[in-house]
Amino acid sequence: MNTPYSKHDEKDVSVEQKLRALHELQTVVSDVDKIKILRGELPLEVQDLEDEIAGLKTRLINLDSEIKNLDTSINNKKIAIKDSQALIAKYTEQQNNVRNNREFDSLSKEIEFQNLEIELSEKRIKEFTTEMTEKEQTITNSKELLSEREEDLERKKAELQEIQEETKIEEEKLKGKSEKIESFIEPRLLTAFKRIRKNARNGLAVVTIQRDACGGCFNKIPPQRQMDIANRKKIIVCEYCGRILVDPKINIVEEDAK
Question: Do 194 and 29 contact (CB within 8 A), yes or no?
């Protein structure tokens, strides 16, 4: 005996059976959607936190490199100061042995230039030191923020894992059921269903008539159109939103009279 959704020859499948299969498929995939809604924004929040943490780690690496460069620059300026001090001592000593005022003035200018070089190096050292202090503070703040974000990530991951574990069995069961129903529906119709579902609000591709209106866009359906839908002799779509329309009792299978 065939199960309700075992494979059939397309010629053996009535329009009513197709409509019932489409409606049940919609019900199943909507249940899967509800599970995804239950997870809410958690998957996106986890991804955002992972991206932010990666950015903070890159920032810390860059700051550390910048501090090392500043430290090197400070040491270079300290060496430059020592070199200038050595030259000042040399020129001062040479002034004691000059033969004329021109040589003395020339050495005085060299001493003055080296003193200016020392002042400039000391100024640069102060600037580099201030910049280092600011970057070190930024590193401290970034590390604190990184620690907070890592804690947030662990908490969000735990929440997401808990929800996934709670819904995993149900989701797998629903997906298995949807695959079984899909195998019963002809490819052309299934492709149309998926296309409509993708473009429709809330993923609804198949809707019932509700209060004489389309259950998707709520536009009124003429009485004759409703009768055609209730007869289940052909697949009818809403002329306003393009969803497949079925009557509210589509999922009720009438038993043969005994």
Answer: no
CB 140, CB 29: distance < 8 Å: no
Whether 221 maps to a domain, the answer reads yes
Among 166, 196, 212, the domain-final residue is 166
CB 186 within 8 A of CB 10: yes
Q: How many residues does the chain have?
A: 258
Q: Is residue 93 part of a domain?
A: yes
- List pLDDT tens digits, range 14-29: 999 999 999 999 999 9
Assess whether 72 and 146 both reside in one domain.
yes
Record the pTM: 0.57
The token pair that represents 245 in the structure block: 């329309």
In tens, the pLDDT along 36-92 reads 887 878 888 999 999 999 999 999 999 999 999 999 999 999 999 999 999 999 999
* N- to C-terminal Cα separation, the chain: 20
Q: How many domains does the chain have?
A: 2
- The Cα–Cα gap between 51 and 17 comes to 48
Domain with 85 in it: 42-166
